[in-house]
Amino acid sequence: MNVQTIMVVGAGQMGSGIAQVAAQAGFRVYLNDVQQPFVERGLATIAKNLTRNVEKGKLSEDDKQAILSRITASTDLADAAEADFVIEAVTENMAVKSAIFSRLDEICPPHTILASNTSSLPITEIAAVTKRPEKVIGMHFMNPVPVMKLVEIIRGLQTADEVYQLTEDLSKQMGKVPVSVNDFPGFVSNRVLMPMLNEAIYCVYEGVATPEAIDEVMKLGMNHPMGPLQLADFIGLDTCLYIMEVLYEGFGDSKYRPCPLLRKYVKAGWLGKKSGRGFYVYN
Ligand code: CAA
User: Fold this and answer.
1) Which of 102, 115, 201, 218 is an S-S bond match for 139, by CB 3.0 to 4.6 Å?
2) Name one GO biological process term (predicted).
3) pTM (2 d.p.)
4) How confident is the model over 149-181, as pLDDT tens digits?
5) Phi-psi region at 112: left, alpha or beta (left = phi > 0; alpha = psi -120 to 50)
6) Closest CA relative to residue 46, chosen from 65, 28, 26
7) Which residue has a Cα nearest atom 1 of ligand 1?
8) Which CATH superfamily is domain 5-182 in?
9) Which atom of ligand 1 is nearest to the CA of 45?
């Protein structure tokens, strides 16, 4: 199959980044969300990123306009009828994702592949709500999408080999490096990353060191680009908690228990950078 049109469902931080790299790769893209202001915010983020690249001399103004012209705003999931490939990037909630996949399965033509950008939910379970489980796959991009090279590609139990191959090729066309992973809670990225972030939060909770000190240790001592608490704030503390819950429940192993301080911050609405406060305060 020759993919020409991609729909990205969810115009948040991840969805807008995915739409940007898809349009940059020359695909026609629908950027879909439930309300027009959400789509407009996503488009504004893309325009801002591209303008920054023009200012840096990495992109011409003509190319920027051509990329933007390839993206169509959508608030109607029925537009997916024109898509060869759909990438869902909505909130990490199985009920919400299941409802979207079930509708997409009805709307899309039989050849359309349905991918999820889920960071930890089982692809096999998402696929099970459709009548095309062999055409459902995980395609996990990293934040910020335009910068990070990795795409974890997750095969569900029934994902067809040719669907895997096509998704791998598509990732490369988008300038990414695909890595194959099997369908287990948290896949590889979040199975390794989240317990580290959670442990850093335990260090704050137990008074081992301040957030600033913990971040300095990991940046200067381990060469991480961001300290774990800065990164947790950047990802969103609600997302971190959600992924820890998925690991804890999925493996039934106490080593994945979320730190009580993480729960407390999320209950307080301290969600990190997006809410203005997490381990740090943002203007
Ligand atoms: N969108 C687009 N581009 C961005 C960006 C954003 N949000 N943030 C930074 N950039 C670009 C900058 O424009 C700059 O581009 P050029 O090289 O062309 O000039 C480049 O990235 C570097 O940016 P900066 O110089 O401003 O800052 P930096 O060197 O500190 O890099 C960073 C910023 C890339 C975010 C870096 O701090 C980093 O790699 N942090 C770790 C990110 C990470 O771990 N991501 C994975 C999170 S986990 C996840 O996503 C999975 C999950 O399921 C939770």
Assistant:
1) 115
2) butyrate metabolic process
3) 0.95
4) 999 999 999 999 999 999 999 999 999 999 999
5) beta
6) 65
7) 144
8) NAD(P)-binding Rossmann-like Domain (3.40.50.720)
9) 1
